[in-house]
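Per-record layout

source: Geodia barretti
name: Phosphomethylpyrimidine synthase
length: 520
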Amino acid sequence: MVVSTEYKQAFKGKPSFPASTKVYQEGSSPSIRVPFRQIALNPTTGRFGQEDNAPLSIYDTSGAYSDETATLGLRQGLPALRRDWIMARGGVEEYARQGIVTPEMEFVGIREGIDPEYVRQEVARGRAIIPANINHPESEPMIIGRNFLVKVNANIGNSAITSSIEEEVEKMLWATTWGADTVMDLSTGRDIHTTREWILRNSPVPIGTVPIYQALEKVGDNPEELTWELYRDTLIEPAEQGVDYFTIHAGVLLRYVPLTANRLTGIVSRGGSIMAGWCLAHHQENFLYTHFGEICEIMRAYDVSFSLGDGLRPGCIADANDEAQFSELKTLGELTQFAWEQDVQVMIEGPGHVPMHKIKENVDLQMEVCHEAPFYTLGPLVTDIAPAYDHITSGIGAAMVGMFGTAMLCYVTPKEQPGSAQSGGRENRRHNLQDRGSCRRRCQGASDGPTVGRRSVQGTVRVPVGRPIQPGAGSGNRPRLPRRDIAGPGGQGGSLLLDVRPQVLCDEDHPGRSGIRSAA
């Protein structure tokens, strides 16, 4: 496997991390060595001369690749750090509820500067998870929970026409180098299995996937052809490889789909649109919901954690906190309790478009109905009129949602949804984030106009997200890779957005049919 010269040069240690060294803190046994990056600080100049400062040790996610003493090869992968721990015990949550502190919990406690017994208590209560598949012994244990450091996820993935296995592994390495706590592989192109295998064998952080993407690829990108049997086999495959958490859209129920008909942007979650399309095509309940017990059995067998997907999340701030979003959230709360009864760890995915004054409501309701399970949010973006600056608007939302109790954030790039966004609202970028005291009155007024630039058209459409967009005048931002790294039309090469109006209107027996506003 070949990686770029730039990456090789950067990973000599000091060139990438000046004035710092990699250090380890040992636990109760020699096998527990927790990595930190120790930064040398300059002396402080005071009234009586210079005073030396002790080095600062910080959280490190780069794995053995930033250790100058390590001899590694990408084709050999990382050492199996947790192999002996795994062979000696069962699932993390199962042991936590039995009052047993596992090596993973001790590792996390040292890493977070917290008593390992407190780590065990939080995992046992379901307020935190340690995603650690038994088949991913290379990963360094980490914890996701609101009483711990806020974590950040980075997304990578190939498409039908872009990227190679080497490039995806290098993306993962760069992400962990610069601090990604977890990485999601959202590949939709060729060689998904092989690409994922190389990523796992070289990843020091937990890896997540969305199994429905690979299942859809197996049926020629036709959601109607999906079956539970196909999905079950697809779920087992990455679990056996070592994927640590799965995004599963089990809360998209048939009766909730019509609730999105009056939205400006319909259903923007790719997984949510796939399952909504299947439910409408077959007029049956979501098979991820009806077979949730069997899914839990698979997850428990491999110690895989749930990331319960928000398939009905809002695609613009005008749709935020609507009935569809909160109905799904309540179902996710029910599924969370069921998964806990099966000793499976759970975190809940949260929305990506929420105005500032509604962020706290989102977090508070999630904690209430999902029983304080960790909250994992994309952003959220607090305005819709800055399509080339989503990394800024989401940064504002991320700071707020983190303050209110979110456990993990998903990074957002400058062009999160450029395929469905236009730059025509640029002249409208006044003080739109808070609007000086009138935010609550006007948040669904002035911002709703530019939102239309993000909405999907009638029917199932393919929105290419790879073409460049034009940043605002004077901006230093340049077009970058989209969040899901998908480009071009055809096959799996575009992001799937679903506006459910036509399907709902055509289904005369569907509950909620009457009173649906036309899409005109």
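summary: The chain has 18 helices and 17 strands. The first helix runs from residue 5 to 10.
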